[in-house]
Amino acid sequence: MHALSQFLVSTGYRVRHEVPNMGQSADLVATRGRWVTFVEAKMRDWRRALEQCRAHEQVADFVCIALLGARPSAELVREVESSGYGLVLVSPVDGECRWITTPARNRSVWQPQRRMLSESLRLIRHVD
User: Fold this and answer.
1) Contact between residue 61 and residue 105 where contact means Cβ atoms under 8 Å apart
2) Does the global pTM surpass 0.90?
3) Which of 4, 16, 22, 75 sits at 20 to 30 Å (Cα–Cα) from 123?
4) Which sequence spans correspond to the domains of the chain?
């Protein structure tokens, strides 16, 4: 997850790990300006990541999956694109990160829960 964090930090995000959200925890939350991006990072079980991402739709402007691997399956790419999620591939060799699919903006954010998340984020130290 270090390579992913550094990739996001290098593009202007503030990154926090293991952020609690409605009884769950997001692997990574990246903020830039007023925009909040939730990322579920997986080594292999991308179906589990999809389930987790659905729960984050209530509070995140953008939802993404980060997957360790050389190439995503066509099924994963279809699922991600149909859900509007982003997909970042992390190379198992050198940790290089690259976007496969950029996320679409989620317009279904539940504002009361988002305000609670924003308050929590202020208390969590971000990655430098």
Assistant:
1) yes
2) yes
3) 4
4) 2-104
